[in-house]
Write a structure and sequence with these properties.
The protein is of the alpha+beta class. The protein folds into two domains: about 80 residues, no CATH class; about 120 residues, Chitinase A, domain 3 (Roll), CATH 3.10.50.40. It is about 35% helix and about 20% strand. The strands form two sheets. Strands 3, 4, 5, 6, 7, 8 and 9 form a seven-stranded antiparallel beta sheet that branches. Strands 1-2 form a two-stranded antiparallel sheet. The protein is elongated, with a radius of gyration of 25 Å. About 20% of the residues are buried. About 10% of the residues have low confidence.
Length: about 240
């Protein structure tokens, strides 16, 4: 997420916090139990609160001090000297977000290691020196691609919880060079004979690591599971 958008999101959440800590025109605060949805501004305030709070929670925040946010809103709109200036607010937000992301990445890395450790013991699963794990569903008899060979494959990618994040469709295979994809794919494709179907279990270090593609539903440090069928290769020139 773009930092400017994050900061603007926090600016919006100040308004949204009125849902939790409503302030009257004199600056007095009241409990969220007193908040009712009557006017248009009531509705839009609550809607903003739901939207922004959900986004912040998805970013990894496990808690937020809504009373502090409400006080900041009240201070700004009533021209009361603020406890933290706007200029100092942005680096504070940035530092905290970085901290939250680092904690999430560390937790995800541990989960990935735990999964791979257990998965390596399952029947039929093989582990290479790099840490790539794979299971042969069907062994092909064709040629094995080189990194400079263009390949055609069918595939489906899922997370360890079964969430699908990418796939090809029947009749529309993907075409690419093995040296132009993630390391786990490169290694697997250059071991697979044409006609093979494998299931890959790709560690974060051989996948996207802590930086998955923007806009994807792949969390940082995820194990990637791919069902892949190597259809054919076109020798490179």
């Amino acid at each position: 997420m773009n930092f400017k958008k994050i900061v603007s999101g926090f600016a919006i959440v100040i308004a949204a916090t009125l849902v939790f800590t409503a302030c009257d025109q004199k600056g007095a605060s009241s409990s969220s139990k007193d908040v009712v949805i009557i006017s248009d501004i009531d509705s839009v305030s609550y809607a903003i609160g739901v939207d922004v709070a959900s986004s912040i929670k998805e970013m990894g925040f496990k808690e937020i001090n809504s009373a502090a946010v409400g006080k900041a809103f009240n201070d700004v709109f009533n021209d009361i000297p603020v406890l933290i200036s706007r200029e100092k607010a942005q680096p504070i937000i940035r530092t905290y977000i970085d901290k939250v992301r680092a904690e999430k990445a560390k937790e995800a890395e541990k989960e990935a290691n735990d999964f791979l450790e257990k998965n390596a013991k399952k029947e039929g699963v093989k582990t290479t020196e790099s840490g790539l794990q794979y299971k042969i569903i069907k062994e092909g008899t064709g040629a094995i691609p080189k990194v400079t060979d263009k390949v055609k494959v069918y595939y489906k990618g899922t997370l360890t919880d079964g969430t699908e994040f990418d796939s090809t469709k029947e009749g529309n295979p993907a075409s690419f060079y093995p040296n132009g994809v993630i390391k786990g794919w490169t290694e697997a494709l250059t071991m697979m004979p044409v006609g093979s179907k494998w299931q890959l279990y790709i560690p974060p270090a051989l996948g996207y690591g802590a930086n998955p593609p923007r806009g994807s539903n792949i969390p940082p440090n995820s194990v990637l599971i791919f069902d892949i069928e190597l259809l054919e290769i076109e020798p490179g020139k």
